[in-house]
Design goal:
The complex is a heterodimer of chains A (about 170) and B (about 800). Chain A contains 5 helices and 5 strands. Chain A is of the alpha+beta class and about 170 residues long. Chain A has 2 domains: about 5-80, Beta-grasp domain (Ubiquitin-like (UB roll)), CATH 3.10.20.30; about 90-165, DNA polymerase, domain 1, CATH 1.10.150. In chain A, strands 2-1-5-3-4 form a 5-stranded mixed beta sheet, covered by helices on one side. Chain B is an alpha+beta fold and about 800 residues long. Chain B folds into 3 domains: about 10-35 and about 485-635, Aldehyde oxidase/xanthine dehydrogenase, molybdopterin binding domain (Aldehyde Oxidoreductase, domain 4, 2-Layer Sandwich); about 40-140 and about 205-255 and about 260-285, Aldehyde Oxidoreductase, domain 3; about 375-470 and about 650-790, 2-Layer Sandwich (Aldehyde Oxidoreductase, domain 4). Chain B is about 25% helix and about 25% strand. Chain B is built from 20 helices and 31 strands. In chain B, the strands form 8 sheets. Chain B has a 7-stranded mixed beta sheet. Chain B has a 6-stranded mixed beta sheet with strand order 7-17-16-15-8-31, sandwiched between helices. The longest helix of chain B has 28 residues, at about 550-580. Chain B is globular. Chain B starts with about 30 loop residues before the first helix and ends with a helix. The chains are: A alpha+beta (about 170), B alpha+beta (about 800). The interface between A and B is large, with 52 and 56 residues.
Amino acid sequence: MSKAQIHVTVNGTVYEAAVEPRLTLADFLRGDLNLTGTHVGCEHGVCGACTVLVDGRAVRSCLMLAVQADGREIATVESLAASDGRLHPIQEAFAEEHGLQCGFCTPGFLLAVHELLDHNPDPTEELIRDVLGGQLCRCTGYQSILRAVHLAAAKVRAVRTADAHA
Amino acid sequence: MAIEIPNRLEDLPVEELRWVGRHVRRREDPSLLTGRTEFIDDVVLPGMLHCAILRSPFPHARITGIDATQAEAAPGVTAVVTGADAQLWCNPARTAPEGWGTLCLATDKVRYVGEPVAAVAASSRYLAEDALELIEVDYEPLDPVVDPFAAMDPESPLVIEDKGTNVMLQRVFTWGEVDRALAEAAQVFTESFRWNRLGANPTETFGAVCAWDPLTLDLTVHGSIQSPSSFGLGRAADLGIPSNKVNVKSHPHGGSFGGKGGARGATIACLLSRKADGKPVKWIEDRTEYLTAGGSQAWDRHYEASLAVDEDARVTALAVTLVDDLGATGEGFGAISAAKPLAAFTGPYTIPVARYDLTLVATNKVPASPYRGMGPPPHFFVLEQMMDIAARGLAIDPAEFRRRNFIPPDQFPYTIPSGNEYDSGSYEEVLDSALDLAGYEELRKLQAEARTEGRIVGVGVASAIEPGVFDWNAYAIVGMPQTGVPEGATVSVDITGMITVRVGFALEGQGQYTLVSQLVADYFAVEMDAVRVVQLDTQSAPPSFGPGGSRLGVAISGAVLGACRRLAEKLAAVAAGLLRAEPDEIELRDGRFRVKGRPGSEMGVAQLAGTMLARSDLLPPDIDPRPEATHVWTAPGRTAADEEGRAKSYLTAAQAVHVVMVEIDPDTGFVEIVKYALADDCGTRLNPVVVEGQTEGSVAQGIGAALFEEYVYDDRAQPLTTTFMDYLTPTVNDVPALDKAVVVTPSPFTPLGAKGCGEGAIHTTPAAVMCAVNDALAPLGVMAREVPASPHRVWELLRRSEGPS
């Protein structure tokens, strides 16, 4: 099968790659770039485990082709923690509130919450439920995830306040 | 040799516990949160090929021809296997009941939609799937066997012709004088119920990478495997090789809930590897494969039950008839789920006699598998509906009716009619905690007000037992006669005093590596960070079964505490030699080995281990110089099953009471949960936050079970739920906030008094939700007898309640 040349930025690194047009973005990230933190749970766009950010918007990478990512900026779960290993406030909040058990769906949740808090660091419970409604978790029963998102929002607000005062 | 394992928290050798029993953050989380944890689909081995499986589109058809020559020549393809290869290199799958297995690839005919027919190994999954399209299979469709009652008709087509019947097992188990109790009862209530197929659906499906050397026949399997040692034995049996040729390395997996299955796919990957000269072959089941034909589908049940009560509203007998549709073969071990109710047949009640009329039937559906709870959840759904039907018939409040029939605290250990022994419990206290938390009387007032407004509101109160720490003997009636399930751990100290614990199971979500670290850190009074937990493959690990049957928290505690005890004895012997004392004069306290009554004469763990490793010449004679010890724990006092299936099987019996209020939308039949409160008692909570997480997750699965999860087949056995758009697992918007209360009655028989709690609330939730639904419907004169009570079913009941229009 003929290949198409793409130019993408993933977690701040620029990649030039030749890919089959049918290659999904999820398989490109996992297989070609070895960014295996993005997980594939259903491959039909329901479970949300494969959620990544494309130009800041949460996207199901199983439903997007790698060629559609040409020229775009992608962020995966690998981009969240600082290079010294410090967890992102959203990750910290999930750890503190036991917002994960097996952890397979977690990268998708983290990125969906990331998009939410980027746009609204003080979301209502209703808005949080609306956003998380597109992410399936089979372990936690969601209660601890809801607690984690509220805590994450508080942490993000605190960071922003600190930054504003700096 | 048996050694003493501490039964109480205060028996641990420290003044103050710093970790065990406290809310401890999980050590596994940073790796999971950053995407570093290596799940099976992240594994890449040199030369690895990718497998795709061609599956039957028919539920029942004869295979009249198969041609794979084009696929073999397709780009990137290294190997293709069909039923002919399976005949050459494979045995029929082991099953329960015995003798209901087929080969991993269909040969003469297919028996369910999605049954594997051929498979390809290629350089990528994309190319492997391309090649599948080039395989020609000729089918001659046969009449499918769909309904289990029709399947029992001697004229029915047969799923496995050689068996001469579709009935896999038919037996009546009678425990006590049931007929007499029914005849002498003040009242007998009888009703029938239907529990439809549902299943685990972990967010990660099954996957494996298999390498089977055609010369040595050595087999290595990496996989998302819940029970690596059992999985290894299964592959050895399937492939006809000695068990010591198989090495299984389980990877952290994305949930399991008993429904990881995957045995067939792994065996197929093994065949492909052999044909590809031993190259590793990766098989990752996709979600559609999982939903169509994976190791998920459980509990396809038709029930009839009778409950006898005397003049004092005490239940005097329970009789249950179950016809369980196990699908095409016994390879998924779904039959175990029909046996496990024996471990808690009469629930939390003092019902003195019981009968179980059990029929297991083969049909052209996917072979049934385990699912969280392994069978009692539907049984308790039935029992608890019967309790409510009786309470309604006797005009007694359902909570009070249960209270009157609870096993009282002074009767433990308590042996139930089906033979198992419950270790301990405080059932009334749990009931009162749940009723208080829910504000039960207030809920009843709200309900009465709502009814005057014409709203359809109900309150359910249900109680169930969670059997904990499984033993094979619980499943003797379906052909699993063994007793004893080992779990081992090795604890070693290095020259700097750092501690490593080696175990045989992979991370799955329940925080067991954190628990292991908590136990060791408190035993030797070190920081959690001083303890590392390492998982070994089956050829190196101490004997291990892994998670399952609500066992691992208790079992690994026994293994770790036993290994710590053995290590402490060794270190004490070394300390005695170095401090010129007798070994029995040495005591371990707060991480120091001290000579009793000789203040200041003491040594620490690191110092002792360092001496052992560096100066074995200084050690007393007969001391093994490795600062390391292994303990293999099995549940004490288990007994082989008798003729009627009675055994001391599950070691612990946790108990819960759930109180649920629902409101039903009269226009849509949609059931909304407006209040959910629960109290539960699973003994000592070793890491309360993890226990709570298990409860919350299990309630969600129970709500899915009660209200919408269902594998639907049409009347020709075609599956209709093959995507997550059709098979509905709960989202955040389907699960209400939970109020939770805790009662702690430590088990007298287990490490630190903990009881099995991993399966948890799913034992009680479906029963409680359905009690609430039926409480809501009762004034309308209709009853929801079928689970899930999905909107269309409830809507139809509402229409029926209005009478003929």
